[in-house]
Amino acid sequence: MIILIKYYTLVVKCLCYNQNMGYENLEKLIDVVKTLRSPQGCRWDRAQTHKSLKPNMLEEAYEAVDAMDSGDMKHLKEELGDVLLQVVLHAQIAADENEFTIEDVAKGLTDKLIHRHPHVFGNVKVNSTQDIIDNWDKLKQEEKQHRKSAMDGISKSQSALMSAQKISKKAVKTGFEWPDEKSLYDCIYSEFEEFKQAEQEQDKEHMEEEFGDILFAVVNLARWNKIDAEQALLKANKKFMARFRKMEELAVKPLEQYSFEEYDALWQQAKTAVL
Hints:
By secondary structure, the chain is an all-alpha fold. The protein is 71% helix and 0% strand.
């Protein structure tokens, strides 16, 4: 992290950086984590590995996103701290095993940022955001020459929905794209028909395959319209839960005792109350 700070010192000064601001707390955090991992430290921290901390990394990242959505800056500050802890902890585990340090992480990131922003740190001229994105992709491709397929580099740990979005975008960059939105809708409708056929055959394996095709096709529709499918589904989940809670508030008897018609009427009330 100290290397990252050094690289950007001149840039920060140009942005009227407050000379009185220090990095004592950042350095202290690194020292605290190092102490926790030491023989005199915490038994739990010493026992952690990259593998054991995987759930924590994912959980903290999602909680940070929740804080961003809430608009609560105090909460966001706390959650970013939790994310930072994961980064520092993983770096310390690697340092304990003589693999790399937090400074190596910072240097690698800094070098990559500078290399992929030649329009800022070099002489490359750009005229639009798309130029920046195209140049980023070109430089990234040069860095990843060991990758033989456009499908290489897809994370195996991210959600299937996020993977589908990335797979779709990578395919499109090679020219594999529907000619128009109508043909994409036709594809989606055909996938539903194929699912219905598999359902009639009562072939569960075939049904699962076709249902996956439906989801993948719908993700492409989101990409076509520049919609983040993951965020769209997260919002839909949040909206459904809010409306269901409202149904529970409005209910005059246990929901299990409602008929379909009563349930539907209650749902419509909840939709009106929670937009």
